[in-house]
# Entry
Amino acid sequence: MQGLDFDVDCWLSREEYPMTIHVVLPTANQASVVWVTDRLAGFGLGSALDTEKIRYLRDHKIACSAWGNKAFLIRDEFADRIEKGLIILSGPEAIREVMKRYIWEFVLPNMPQSNARRPESGLILMTFLEERPQTYIASVYGPPVITCVDNRAILGDFETPGKIFYEYYWENASKALHEVLLIGIHIVRLAHEMKRVYIGDPNAWFFKDGVFQQLAARELEGYVKLSKSLDGHILEHIHKAQPI
# Structure
């Protein structure tokens, strides 16, 4: 399948709902992938907490998450059905059909969409069933649209200024794992700096050598420091502009 960039805005009101952001970036050899999101979740009436948005089912070789309205309900019901054997994942076509059926049977009846043209919710599934990880995205707006993403994806806070690192710097980097991690973390950290009320601190996972794992807190701290220093370098060069 030819690589596909799948950019989806979750279309939530910035004033009314806490946002989220998911950035999925592959490495140069496509055998490794980085998934960076944030940790802020809103629970209504102005309350929020720091939590894990990616649910990893090691025994089933999948990870999943969601964005938009009722994101945790969408994610957990899907993961619970997999753990109970009610959902069986195999090849790409079968996975798309399973996700489509789940959206029809559970998501749409329980969470009707107020605007058929704008997806208010979506499901993200990453599978590790073959040598290369694969990412599937189900957007919920009327008939569900299931996309198999072969390249990169950014969901949630689609308008983040950090998107330039997704669109430009990732394309021009060598795409080694450590570079892709920094780019993904930098995007989410910038989104956090711009919208602290809606988006939390970065949280990074990555797939390498057949293992999907979370970046350790100390390692994440190092990448966040690099991200901040990158801001400093850019501002330093701006200050060096020739006065007129």
